What does this fold into?
Amino acid sequence: MEPLESLADTLLFEWQNRRLRLWLTNLRDCPDEFGHWAGLVRLRAEHLSDQWRPHRTELVERLRTHFGESIPDAMAHDQVLLPMAADALEADLVAKGVPKPLAERARDLFTLEPPTAQWRL
It folds into this structure.
């Protein structure tokens, strides 16, 4: 097995065990950005953040395209998985009738870092 395939398997294992996962940015910070599409954008982003899974062949191909044959550093998940999830969200929204420019803006709704807890006293 080549190193990029091994890396893909490691990323998929971490994804399956929820060590890596998609988080949503705070949609309340941009309520007017999506206009009357905001509800649909939020629902689809929430759904995909729980349901989306990277496909191994696409992941290996993306790793190969992004890194060539070199072994990437620990940030491979940010550089490959996050754009894959953003592509899936954009395609899903466009398929649901959301205008392409809005769907492109929705790509920034995903993050791989858990949000910071914000407590109100």
Remarks:
- The chain has a mean pLDDT of 86.
